């Protein structure tokens, strides 16, 4: 679990990021989760642009992606969500305590 300080730090880093994963009409699928897992291995902090739909549908997409990849939600604004997963073998980001 990320502490509030760590979330705040990751939000500041994510501000300038562009979405790496864009969900289409099919929404969150196994293939998208696999691509997201690879992106998280490389970058650790990833922005995802969710497909259209209401808030409940977006929440389902986020729950599916975090469940499949083991990532944590850092921030969620509209159709964009920021996810983080630590790469244990080769950490890229130094998190504050």
TrEMBL record:
Keywords: RNA-binding. SMART domains: CRS1_YhbY. Residues 1-96 form the CRM domain. InterPro entries: RNA-binding_CRM, RNA-binding_domain, YhbY-like_sf. This is YhbY family RNA-binding protein. The lineage of its organism: Bacteria, Pseudomonadati, Pseudomonadota, Gammaproteobacteria, Lysobacterales.
